[in-house]
């Protein structure tokens, strides 16, 4: 059985061919490899790997899909969403600064993996470094850093030292909670969140000037920071605040929610790519190193000497007018959704759709570069999957908003109580007196039992019971619930406790 660190079966001589250290050589190698494979595009877009069992989402096509499936097979707990976000994040870390979308944006991206405890999140920290090392270039390690940066200045310094990389942030959910906390206002974690917000798609990163010459660093054009954090659903949805929506923090992240249950353990985990995908991956890394003017054998902790020549990124193009038109249509849909949300005072909806078009365009460009790093063009397949991914992200999140699972304010509690009412009436939640429920009447008892353990109620300063009473009172005043006559409830249904009639608007 091949080792976990083995990708493909490339001979050593093949790896030695990628050592010239300039962009022109990389383009020559790419042209030679692409020419060597007859029917390249058809081969790229084929789906030769089949994962057993029903999957919760669609795999990306082409080389990106092959990389994702390789990560899936290399995971001890194989989760499709984890494998896909790991593949996209790895590509963003490598390509982020070296390539541009058709509109001139970098391919850097912020990702957030939302997954329950014990669902296989560790694969991102194990497989991404292995993937980079297996490219055959020692300098590839510079494209990913697994570190919980202690402060915004620490991350700022790392970006100036190593522009264009993926920051892997373990247990980011805990930091999210602190970023969101009013009690931590002005602290290191909130400053870190503010820095992440400001660094997204930043054209120029300011330098650092210190009294000591060795401590000072010059500014950097197009820093292209990519970011991948992970958190649990409970921590993530509870931590989100209106402030995060208003300042653009949340809208910068493409979230990937794991929707499937914990899979069986994979005791035969092994990271392998087929020869064509391996060749493409090695070329991508080489091209990115050369465009960034990074020698192929430069250790991660060694800074570039002198002032590098101006950056000359490769711009992704649309292959057909239809792909461009599809993105234009999606951009208009996003614009209308933002306007509709703003008119309705829906900050969550506005945040979700604010940068959706840009995120989809970045994803489509990643897929295009992965399939042909020398002359990348966005196809209809790239466009279709990228828009599908972003809309899936939006729907998953907005469903959580509608169900009252996002945030911990009064609005969240009201949505959750109304959701419980509807579920009881529909028979999805059982009560002692189903006839009451069929008549649209819900007991306080069933509301208490289905909200007491939820964070918006449990963590209320006055306690869960008081929080429920205040929520019910507000809903009664707003005409969404009506308190039922206690004597009639006892007479008709034999119910002695408080009851409420759900008012369907």
Walk me through this protein's architecture:
Strands 3-4-7-2-8 form a 5-stranded parallel β-sheet. The termini are far apart. The chain contains 22 helices and 14 strands. It folds into 2 domains: 12-260 and 271-296, Rossmann fold (3-Layer(aba) Sandwich); 410-502, Arc Repressor Mutant, subunit A (Orthogonal Bundle), CATH 1.10.10. The longest helix has 23 residues, at 321-343. With 505 residues, the chain is of the alpha/beta class. The model is unreliable at 1-23 and 33-54 (pLDDT under 50). Strand 3, helix 7 and strand 4 form a beta-alpha-beta unit. The protein has helices spanning 12-16, 23-36, 40-45, 62-73, 80-95, 123-133, 152-161, 172-180, 188-199, 233-239, 242-246, 275-291, 321-343, 347-354, 356-371, 380-402, 410-425, 434-438, 444-449, 455-458, 464-477, 486-493, and strands at residues 99-100, 110-114, 144-146, 166-169, 204-205, 220-221, 226-231, 253-257, 314-315, 317-318, 377-378, 441-443, 481-483, 499-502.
* Distance linking N and C termini: 62 Å
- General shape: elongated
Average pLDDT confidence is 85
CATH topology of the largest domain: Rossmann fold
Strand order within the widest beta sheet: 3-4-7-2-8
How many domains would you count in the coordinates?
A: 2
Query: How does CATH name the architecture of the largest domain?
Result: 3-Layer(aba) Sandwich
Low-confidence stretches: 1-23, 33-54
């Amino acid at each position: 059985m091949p080792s976990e660190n083995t990708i493909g079966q490339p001979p050593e001589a093949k790896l030695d061919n990628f050592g010239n250290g300039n962009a022109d050589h990389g383009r020559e190698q790419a042209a030679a490899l692409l020419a060597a494979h007859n029917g390249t595009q058809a081969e790229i877009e084929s789906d030769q790997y089949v994962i057993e069992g029903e999957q919760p989402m669609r795999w990306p096509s082409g080389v990106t899909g092959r990389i994702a499936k390789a990560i899936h097979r290399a995971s001890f707990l194989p989760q499709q969403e984890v494998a896909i976000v790991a593949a996209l994040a790895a590509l963003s870390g490598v390509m982020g600064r070296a390539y541009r979308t058709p509109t001139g944006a970098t391919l850097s991206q912020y990702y957030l993996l939302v997954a329950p405890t014990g669902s296989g999140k560790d694969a991102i920290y194990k497989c991404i470094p292995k993937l980079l090392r297996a490219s055959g270039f020692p300098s590839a390690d510079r494209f990913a850093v697994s570190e919980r940066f202690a402060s915004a200045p620490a991350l700022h310094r790392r970006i100036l030292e190593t522009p264009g990389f993926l920051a892997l942030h373990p247990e980011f959910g805990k930091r999210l909670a602190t970023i969101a906390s009013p009690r931590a206002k002005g602290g290191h974690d909130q400053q870190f969140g503010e820095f992440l917000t400001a660094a997204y798609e930043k054209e120029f990163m300011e330098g650092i000037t210190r009294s000591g010459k060795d401590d000072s660093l010059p500014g950097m054009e197009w820093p292209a920071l990519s970011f991948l954090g992970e958190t649990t659903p409970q921590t993530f949805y509870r931590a989100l605040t209106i402030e995060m929506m208003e300042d653009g923090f949340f809208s910068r992240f493409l979230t990937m929610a794991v929707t499937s249950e914990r899979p069986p353990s994979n005791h035969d985990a092994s990271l392998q790519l087929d020869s064509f995908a391996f060749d493409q991956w090695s070329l991508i890394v080489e091209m990115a190193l050369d465009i960034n003017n990074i020698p192929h054998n430069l250790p991660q902790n060694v800074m570039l000497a002198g002032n590098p020549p101006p950056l000359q990124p490769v711009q992704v193009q649309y292959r057909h007018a239809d792909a461009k038109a599809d993105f234009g249509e999606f951009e208009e849909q996003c614009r209308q959704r933002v306007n509709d949300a703003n008119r309705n005072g829906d900050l969550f909806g506005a945040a979700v759709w604010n940068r959706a078009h840009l995120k989809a365009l970045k994803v489509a460009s990643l897929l295009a570069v992965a399939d042909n790093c020398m002359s990348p063009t966005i196809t209809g397949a790239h466009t279709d999957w990228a828009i599908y991914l972003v809309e899936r992200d939006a729907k998953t999140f907005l469903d959580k908003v509608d169900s009252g699972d996002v945030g911990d304010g009064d609005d969240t509690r009201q949505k959750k109580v109304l959701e419980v009412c509807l579920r009881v009436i529909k028979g999805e939640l059982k009560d002692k007196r189903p006839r009451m429920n069929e008549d649209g009447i819900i007991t306080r008892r069933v509301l208490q039992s289905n909200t007491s353990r939820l964070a918006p109620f449990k963590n209320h300063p006055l306690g869960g019971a008081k929080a429920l009473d205040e929520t019910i009172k507000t809903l009664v005043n707003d005409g969404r619930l009506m308190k039922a006559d206690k004597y009639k409830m006892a007479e008709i249904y034999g119910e002695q406790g408080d009851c409420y009639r759900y008012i369907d608007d």
